[in-house]
Amino acid sequence: MMTVVTVPATTANLGPGFDCLGAALTLTNTFTFSWSDRPHVSIRGTEAAAVSSSTDNLAYRAYTRLYEYLGREAPPVYLEIDLGVPLARGLGSSATAIIGGLVGANRLAGFPLSHTEVLELAIEMEGHPDNVVPALLGGCRLAVQEGTGGWHWLEIPWDQDVVPIVAIPDFELATETARQVLPAHCTYADAVFNISHLGALLRGLETGQREWLQLALGDRLHQPYRQSLIKGYAALHRAALAAGAHGLVISGAGPTLLALGDPVTASGIATALQETWATFGVQARVEVLAIQRQGTTVRDR
Q1: Which residue among 22, 65, 85, 234 has the highest number of C-beta atoms inside a 10 angstrom radius?
Q2: Is cis: bond before 255, omega within 30 of 0?
Q3: 253 and 109 together in one domain
Q4: What does the alpha-carbon distance between residue 67 and residue 73 come to, in Å, rounded to a whole number?
Q5: What is the DSSP letter of 289?
Q6: Between 115-126 and 58-70, two packed helices, what is the crossing angle to 10 degrees?
Q7: Same domain, 178 and 122
């Protein structure tokens, strides 16, 4: 028997939703588990050479972490990984590996853990919830932590006419590097700015109202500091707006950029982003995507 786990890419932050808001997209990584007499990892895809094929592979570590949590020894498996989510680009590739490994282990162990328990392990491994929650559950999700440390994940309605367009450049940006440029503290004014804009964003996503979305994508917590790490950001922002985008934001920690448009403007926005980045010598893969409502899927074959 083989167990196949398919996990969607994610885009996080969405402007003001720093470290708490994310959405699943229609790009996927696939993780196939089969029993083996020894641990083995095999990777396919355009960036396969950049991913470890030993047992320190992140998906394999997640697989063993769940068994460790259960107090059981992880049985050896043959893990095949098919990569469809670009690495180190701000599209949640590490979250797909963590969710893929945990969900595969949970299936092979007989589903002893609930979604909540799986997500708590995933957040422990990832360090924050904004990617792993939508990667498992699908849709757009807001993660909220209780004062006692527990988590809740709220589904955020996303109007079908709000179209995500991602521009994925041919260079990487490590999350650690993007974290290092952030200040250690923020002012009350910046905190209030983000709180109000997040509220507007949630309403804009739900209703699809262009004016609200144009207003809502402003941010003062991370994007002003990370824009300098992304070549041509200011020109790309202008080009996206000129092509009809509601706005342009950094996807996760970057360097992928996320534009929000509508079914009429989406293709023009994609062309504008690709052509503008080319003027800076950057080749970009630009995709008009959709929100993946289903989240992670598991099937046996």
Answers
A1: 22
A2: yes
A3: no
A4: 6
A5: -
A6: 130
A7: no
Termini Cα distance of the chain: 6
Which parts of 28-166 fold into alpha helices (H)?
Answer: 58-70, 93-108, 115-126, 132-137
Q: What is the pLDDT of residues 225-261, one digit of tens each?
A: 998 889 999 999 999 999 999 999 999 988 999 999 9
Residues written for the chain: 301
Verify that 141 and 12 share a domain, yes or no. Answer: yes
Q: What does the pLDDT average to over 155-162? A: 96
Distance CA 17, CA 140 (A): 11
Q: Is the pLDDT of residue 147 over 90?
A: no
Tell me the whole-structure pTM to 2 decimals.
0.94
62 and 144 in a single domain? The answer is: yes
What residues form DSSP beta bridges with 4? Answer: 32, 299
Whether the Cβ atoms of residue 17 and residue 288 lie closer than 8 Å to each other: no
Which tokens is 157 given? 């309605």
How far apart (Å, rounded) are the C-alpha atoms in residues 11 and 251?
A: 5
Tokens 């396969």 locate to 48
- Those residues whose C-beta lies under 8 Å from the C-beta of residue 301, and which sit 6 or more positions away, are 1, 2, 4
- Residue 230's domain comprises 163-288
The Cα–Cα gap between 239 and 233 comes to 10
Averaged over 267-288, what is the pLDDT? 96
Q: Are the CB atoms for 33 and 6 separated by under 8 Å?
A: no
How far is residue 118's CA from residue 135's CA, in Å, rounded to a whole number? Answer: 12
CATH number at residue 105: 3.30.230.10
* For residue 174, pLDDT beyond 80: no
Query: Over the chain, what is the mean pLDDT?
Result: 94
Model confidence over 106-139: pLDDT tens digits?
999 999 999 999 999 999 999 889 999 999 999 9
What is the per-residue pLDDT across 68-86, written as a single tens digit (0 to 9) for each? 999 999 999 999 999 999 9
